[in-house]
Design goal:
- By secondary structure, the protein is α/β, with parallel strands linked by helices.
- It has two domains: 95 residues, no CATH class; 104 residues, Endonuclease III, domain 1 (Orthogonal Bundle).
- It contains twelve helices and six strands.
- Strands 3-4-5-6 form a four-stranded mixed β-sheet, with helices on both faces. It has a two-stranded parallel sheet with strand order 1-2.
- The protein starts with a helix and ends in an 18-residue tail after the last helix.
- 9% of the residues are buried.
């Protein structure tokens, strides 16, 4: 995971780092010896080919000494200086980074609201199967299904995703190919998605989607010995 974070950072800031000398500090000590390891898997070899394009040094920095990064990653990072005067060295480092508490209302905040649920509800209106299930819920012929106040069909606590609009493909692509998913296998991906979404033959669709992933086919190789030829069973006397 630490090496994946390094590669992700290099890709994001490539236009700043390429051609320049840079140093990377990590609390994962084994990353210092990644360039001298004799045995690497296919994913690590591919990442090392990308890292070789940069002029960088990996430096080990203990986690307990990295107080500035811990303070920036916490939610109450701005209150550390005000509420903890018994840590003067941390307060001094935060002031050195020009971090100050801003009064509420002085900065315009951007609120991001997902619209996937609205898209699913609109697609359900155009899907004949979901239209039929909505009518059956009022007649008591669809056990487990319910319709909320927004006229969206749910199966227990899972929203029903129709086939129209490629919504199923968008959900599976986000759960498998995003930078925070790291290409999970079919079973793991199904266990994660079934907590929020439902559609017919969901497990089969996920298995087919993962089987078509080119990255998984090239990287996730089998680590078991070949089974060999079939051996006939001994015929009893």
């Amino acid at each position: 995971m630490e090496l994946a974070a390094v590669v992700h950072a290099l890709k994001i800031w490539r236009h700043y780092l390429i051609g320049n000398k840079c140093e990377i500090y990590t609390d994962h000590k084994s990353l210092k010896y990644i360039f001298t390891q004799s045995e690497l898997n296919l994913r690590q070899r591919r990442w090392l080919e990308l890292i070789k394009d940069y002029n960088l040094d990996l430096q080990y920095h203990p986690g307990n000494a990295n107080v500035v990064a811990d303070a920036l990653s916490s939610k109450a990072c701005c209150n550390v200086v005000r509420q903890k005067p018994h840590q003067p060295e941390l307060a001094q480092e935060l002031r050195h980074l020009n971090l100050y508490k801003v009064k509420q209302g002085t900065v315009n905040t951007l609120v991001v609201q997902p619209n996937l649920e609205e898209q699913i509800g609109q697609a359900q209106k155009e899907d004949p199967y979901h239209t039929t299930m909505k009518s059956n819920t009022g007649k008591g012929k669809a056990p487990g299904f319910r319709v909320d106040e927004k006229v969206i069909l749910w199966y227990k606590d899972r929203i029903c995703v129709p086939k129209k609009g490629n919504l199923r493909l968008i959900i599976m692509d986000e759960a498998h190919n995003s930078a925070y998913s790291i290409h999970p296998e079919a079973t793991k991906m199904f266990m994660d998605l079934k907590e929020k979404y439902w559609w017919r033959a969901m497990k089969r669709d996920i298995a087919e989607f993962v089987a078509k992933c080119d990255v998984c086919r090239r990287v996730k190789a089998e680590h078991q010995r070949p089974a060999g030829l079939l051996q006939p069973l001994h015929i009893p006397v």
